[in-house]
Amino acid sequence: MKVFITGGTGFVGNVVVQALLGRDHEVTVLTRSLPRGQPHTSRVAYVEGDPRQAGKWQESLGEHDGVINLAGASIFCRWTGANKRAIRESRIETTRNVVEGLSRRKGRETVLISASGTGYYGFRDEEGVGEGASAGRDFLAVLSQEWEAEAEKATEHGARVALCRLGVVLGRNGGALKKMAPAFRAGLGSPLGRGNQWFSWIHEADLADIFLFLLDRKDASGPVNCTAPRPVRNRELTSALGRALRRPTFLPSLPGPLLKMGLGEFAQVFLEGQCAVPARLLDLGFGFRFPTLGQALDDLL
């Protein structure tokens, strides 16, 4: 299959590209600047362009059987008004342009796998949320709804659309684990706030396998929770990280108000959460390589 990917040079994108190549797919990566010393091969190529802007890259996209849309500014920042606009616009405008590119494939079999997040559900206490759960009302929830609505417009051009609601991605070369590990290695790891908030996560290898799985499964469309089947609470995460790194985690919880002073509204992502479960994937028969946090951390660390 010929697969076009936005966000393919980022933390998650790099893992997905390698997985695609491992399955003998031909891959085209959209990038703002062509990488130096990265030769084009028969299976991977780079197209220069800004996904937030319409351009010739959309013509290339229209030549592909599948599209994986991962582009978007990082949410790991203080949520000022300007940063919120950048976070939103990078996702909405990119997805809108991707769908416009797909319009060139009308009448041909096409699949769009578009990223979203478990933030769609808002902050929940004890309730486990599958794909049928209602949406939340906070910033990330509203953003995810708008993001998904743009992606679903690809169905008007005959594309099959899978909306991947990603949990926190744990990987070797980026993401949350890279940010958390240094403090834990220094013996400074501790729960955040009350410590009972849910943490829905996914190993990078399982996430890449999910994308490959959804490319092939013609009966898979709509929202898909891309999370491990066993979410954990923040306290469990703290203990598991300490064990994996062989470091103590005896410090008291970091108070929520202190975290809010440093991170502002973004602190909610750490202090609250949702217990997202991959009901759709399990129904489809997807098999996780790393279903438990302990297995994932042993592999990654």
Quickly list its features.
301 residues; 38% helix; globular; alpha/beta; Rossmann fold; single chain
Explain the layout of strands and helices.
Elements lengths: L1 E5 L4 H12 L3 E6 L12 E5 L8 H5 L4 E4 L11 H22 L8 E7 L10 E2 L9 H14 L7 E7 L1 E3 L4 H11 L12 E2 L1 E3 H13 L5 E5 L5 E2 H12 L10 H8 L4 H4 L3 E2 L2 H6 L8 H8 L1
Parallel strand pairs: 1-2, 1-4, 2-3, 4-5, 5-7, 6-13, 7-11, 8-10
Antiparallel strand pairs: 9-12
Helix pairs in contact: 1-6, 3-4, 7-11
Beta-strand content estimate: 15-25%
Amino-to-carboxy terminus distance:
33 Å
Shape: globular
The level 1 CATH classification of the domain at 2-169 and 202-228 and 277-282 is: Alpha Beta
Taking all residues together, what is the mean pLDDT?
A: 94
Largest sheet: 7 strands, parallel
Topology-level CATH name of the domain at 2-169 and 202-228 and 277-282: Rossmann fold
Name given to the CATH homologous superfamily of the domain at 2-169 and 202-228 and 277-282: NAD(P)-binding Rossmann-like Domain
Number of helices: 11
Low confidence ranges: none
Instruction: Please tell me how large the radius of gyration is.
Output: 19 Å
Please provide the count of β strands. 13
Helix content: 25-40%
CATH architecture of the domain at 2-169 and 202-228 and 277-282: 3-Layer(aba) Sandwich
